[in-house]
Amino acid sequence: MQSLQQLQLLQNPTEAANSQSELEAPPKQVAQAMERLNQAARVIADIRLGADRVFEALFLTSHPRTSTTDTSLQLLLKEDASMRQHLHDLRSIGKKLEESGVLTESLRSRSNSWGLHMPLVCPDGAVVAYAWKRQLAGQAGASAVDRTRLALKAFTDQKRRFFPHIDDGVKMESRSKKHRASHSVLEHGGGEPFDCKTLPDIQSRLEKLVPNVKVSTYGRLSWLKRANSLPGSGSDDDPPEASKLVFQSSSKLRSGLEAEVADKVAVIELYVPSVFRAVVSLNPAGSVDPDSVAFFSPDEGGSYLHSRGFSAHHVYKHITEHASTVLQYFLGFGTGTALYSLLLWICSFESLFSKPCSKCGRLLAMDKKSALILPPLHRAYQELPLAANLDVCEAYHGGCSPDDS
Amino acid sequence: MPVKWVLYWQPNQGSTVSTQILNEAAQCAESINGVKEGRWKATLNYYKPMLRDQSNHPDLPRDFLGISLADQPSKYYFIIRSQRIVVEADATIQLIMEKLQSYKSKVSLYFDGFQYQLGDFRLRVGRVVPVHSESIRGIVMEVEYLPISSMEKARKVMEEFVEIWHEALSKRSLSGKFVNSELNFGEFGLADTYTPQHTGVQYAIVMAHMIATVQPVVRG
User: Fold this and answer.
1) Contact (Cβ atoms closer than 8 angstroms) between residue A105 and residue A131
2) Radius of gyration over alpha carbons of chain A, in Å?
3) Is 60 exceeded by the pLDDT of residue A174?
4) With 0-12 CB in 10 A as exposed, 13-18 as middle and 19+ as buried, what is A389?
5) Most buried residue among A117, A282, A356, B122 by CB atoms closer than 10 A?
6) What pTM was computed for the model?
7) What is the number of domains present in chain B?
8) For residue A196, is pLDDT > 80?
9) Which site among B121, B148, B166 would you substitute to test the A interface, given the most A Cβ atoms closer than 10 Å to its Cβ?
10) CA-nearest residue of chain B to A371?
11) Can you give the pLDDT of all 220 residues of chain B as single tens digits?
């Protein structure tokens, strides 16, 4: 380090004025600070070793046959004394470091006179060469904070999915209070507020608004059976046979949980004959919290037909991707209306093969990104829950959409 | 089964049909990001009743044809267009036909060409050639929209696709165009959900048009 070399040069002149006062030249202060930090590190190491020895002594007392209680007691006393000494040493080093400004930034401005900086011990224990280096590091840390936040969110989502019985005290962040307010009370047509917090309510509401869409609910196991028995699942010869097999093998694995989860609704199917079949999964089962959605052709069938599966056809694959984004948008309000908004939005795809794009006026367009000819796959969703009917839901091609996703 | 439209090439007045058009169509498919998938083939037979005295039986249908489709190798389809009848049979029925000799195949035609995948669309372009001959009688095109099987729901999608196709093809200044034969499937007892029988009927209509308009010419 540069400061040490400078220190050696300056050592002789400043040695005469060797005192612990603040009148010392910066290089000496820096060198002393470094020395004390090293000492502190050694003392901490000693404390760690001492702690190990204490544990060892305790271990020995619990196994009397390896030694007598007398030796164990002596060991413990010896360690106790040396630990106290170490901790005392650490305290005094710490005081000195505090005085010289290493643990705080009180001497920062003074250090600038020689272009040298005191090392700084940050609150989290990291030692940095100079105080404002931490700020630079801090900016890099900000993105790390974002990444951590995303990781935490992903973790809590997974936790809720796989360990629903663990009490989740973490509240999800919401986008803005304004949106939340507008989404908490939904009004339709006549202005009467509508509570979309229960599944039967949602179902009856949808039946009135979009009579062509068939809304059905299933438990997880019964959905699996249904998916395998749908025409187009490959086993055209004997669909009931295939579903029976699946049912039997699954029941062997889940005999314990079956009774518990059998009655809880975990899957919602929206089926518009000849247009699409959408599968929404609820997590936890029995709640009104959607966690994933997927679209399929009405002619598709098989065990891959679930809310995290993908259709064999491009058009439904692309809609599924778009739907995930929209689902996250609705969930972001945290008002519990996500399911109703999502189902309503899904129903707007009834016009998938008939409603032209609101921007270019055509039904089919070449999608630049995927180089495929597709109908409008985007449906406006921001204003959705308050809409009286789905005609206001505008359709867009991927490339024509006003919010480029 | 996915919805399929069968179109045929209608040359302009005075023009002839040639393999050049086939090549142009293939290139056109590639220009709209089509991916070549391989070849396809179908055969069609015109049957005539074998009677010693034809005049005694004037009511016997003269437009009885049988067709084997590329999608259904184990089936054979009979169509009597004038009577609006279409029937699906096992492919082995041709053996019985040969044994009975009541109706013999007088004209046999091959359809063969290339297949392209354009996302959710499947395109087949092929030439129509008589068996034992190299002269092209016509060109057919199959357009399939894979995700759905309802004729009504797919109508707009198919119409717009054909428009896109026409637009792309028009850049190549060919003397003619692909024409879609409008027909009433209900007359044949067929429903909105697409089936191979629909394809059979479309081919029967297409052949009728082709025979009426196209002159058999040019080798290769």
Assistant:
1) yes
2) 34
3) no
4) exposed
5) A282
6) 0.65
7) 1
8) no
9) B148
10) B33
11) 999 999 999 888 888 888 888 899 999 999 888 999 999 999 999 988 887 776 677 777 778 899 999 999 999 999 998 889 999 999 999 999 889 888 888 889 999 999 999 999 999 999 999 988 888 889 999 999 999 999 999 999 999 999 999 999 988 888 888 999 888 899 999 999 999 999 999 999 999 888 877 554 444 4
Q: For residue A273, which residues of chain B lie inside 8 Å, CB to CB?
A: 150
Which tokens is A322 given? 């778009």
* CB of B146 less than 8 A from some CB of A: yes
Range of the domain at B17: 3-50+61-213
Q: Angle of helix A220-229 relative to helix A239-253, nearest 10 degrees?
A: 150
% of chain A surpassing 90 pLDDT: 20
Closest CA of chain B from A207, distance in Å: 22
The alpha carbons of chain B give a radius of gyration, in whole angstroms, of: 18
On whether residue B219 sits in a domain, the answer given is no
| Residue positions counted in chain A | 405
Instruction: Report pLDDT digits (tens) over B52-95.
Output: 776 677 777 778 899 999 999 999 999 998 889 999 999 999 99
Residue A285 has pLDDT above 90, yes or no: no
Question: Alpha carbon of A343 to those of A215, A265, B3: distances in Å?
Answer: 9, 15, 28
Q: Is B156 in Cβ contact with A373 (below 8 Å)?
A: no
Interface contact A373-B32, CB threshold 8 A: yes
- pLDDT at A387 > cutoff 90: no
b/e code A101-120 from CB counts within 10 Å (16+ = b): bbbebebeeebeeeebbbbb
Indicate whether B190 belongs to any domain. Answer: yes
State the pairing for strand pair A120-121/A127-128. antiparallel
A313:B120 CB<8 A: yes
**Residue B56 belongs to some domain of the structure:** no
Cβ B86 vs Cβ B190: under 8 Å: yes
* Distance in angstroms (rounded) separating the CA atoms of residues A281 and A241: 26
Q: Where are the domains of chain A?
A: 27-100, 199-232+263-396
- Whether B55 maps to a domain, the answer reads no
- Biggest CA-to-CA distance, chain A: 101
- Continuous segment of H or E residues that includes residue A78: helix A69-99
Q: Which of residues 343-382 of A touch B (CB under 8 A)?
A: 353-354, 362-364, 366, 370-375
| Residue B94, domain CATH | 2.40.320
Under the banding of pLDDT at 50, 70 and 90, the label for residue A63 is confident
Q: B33, A363: Cβ pair inside 8 Å? A: no
Find which of B30, B121, B157 to mutate to test the A interface (most A CBs within 10 Å of its CB): B157
Q: Does B147 touch chain A (CB under 8 A)?
A: yes
List, in sequence order, the alpha helices (H) in B5-102. Answer: 19-31, 93-100
Q: How far is CA A316 from CA A294, A297, A361, A384, B102, in A?
A: 8, 7, 21, 21, 50
